[in-house]
Write a structure and sequence with these properties.
Elements lengths: L1 H30 L3 E9 L8 E6 L8 H16 L3 E2 L8 E9 L3 E5 L23 E6 L2 E5 L8 E16 L5 E11 L4 H12 L9 E7 L8
Parallel strand pairs: 2-3, 2-4
Antiparallel strand pairs: 1-9, 1-10, 4-8, 5-8, 6-7, 8-9
Helix pairs in contact: 2-3
Length: 227
């Protein structure tokens, strides 16, 4: 009788482990479709809609590039959506919009299980890389993480890339800074055609935002990253 009860209990525990693992895999897959960015913005009094603007490259290395032209169109489209008008040239613009973007060379990380420290669940927490020590750790600035002691033993290696865009808006006549902001993200992709559109969308979410506030903004990309 005791042996039968023990077998039943072990069978139930194994079933719960498998069911829980399946649930976590489903949640992890859903989470991986989202793009999380940390957005910080500062502003003074922005001109009312109807004013003209021109987007320029803040980084000299980006000036005149076809790639920069493609991404600057994303910024221009967001400003037009807000009611501003694109000027035919910088000389005729009321506002000069400085724009730049970058992604670093990445940093390699290892973890003792497929779920422990997963980059989509919790690469950043409160501004730094974070590792859990068993069970769930709560939602911080960069989401949830999960470590399941039932499924240890292996070593996972992955590379985390930090990407960033910066946006500055100056009054052309006076040179006064009207707005400045950054959107940053940590991800396993270094593919700029995937990263930059998401970061642009993040920085313009609830634009211009509260001055000095840092937000975590989740954007659902239309397409998965292509490598």
């Amino acid at each position: 009788m005791i042996a039968g009860r023990a077998a039943t209990r072990n069978s139930l525990q194994n079933w719960l482990k498998l069911a829980f693992a399946g649930l976590m895999l489903t949640m992890l897959a859903a989470c991986a479709t989202n793009f999380d960015a940390s957005v910080t913005r500062f502003q003074s009094q922005l001109p009312p809609p109807g004013q003209s603007f021109a987007v320029v490259a803040d980084d000299p290395a980006l000036r005149g590039g076809i790639e920069f032209g493609q991404y600057s169109r994303l910024v221009a489209a967001q400003l037009i959506r807000l009611g501003y008008v694109e000027a035919p040239s910088v000389d005729t613009a009321s506002m000069v919009v400085g724009f730049s973007y970058r992604v670093d060379n990445g940093h390699s990380y290892t973890s003792p299980s497929a779920f422990y420290g997963d980059p989509f669940w919790g690469p950043w927490r409160g501004g730094g890389f974070y590792r859990g020590h068993g069970g769930f750790y709560g939602a911080g600035a960069w989401g949830y993480g999960w470590y399941d002691p039932w499924f240890g033993g292996g070593i996972d290696s992955y590379t985390i890339y930090t990407s960033e865009i910066a946006l500055k808006i100056d009054d052309h006549a006076t040179g006064k800074r009207l707005f400045e902001g950054k959107a940053q993200a940590a991800s396993t992709s270094n593919h700029l055609p995937y990263l930059v559109p998401n970061l642009v969308e993040a920085i313009f979410t609830h634009f211009p935002g509260a001055s000095g506030e840092t937000l975590r903004i989740t954007v659902a990309p239309e397409k998965a990253a292509k490598r």
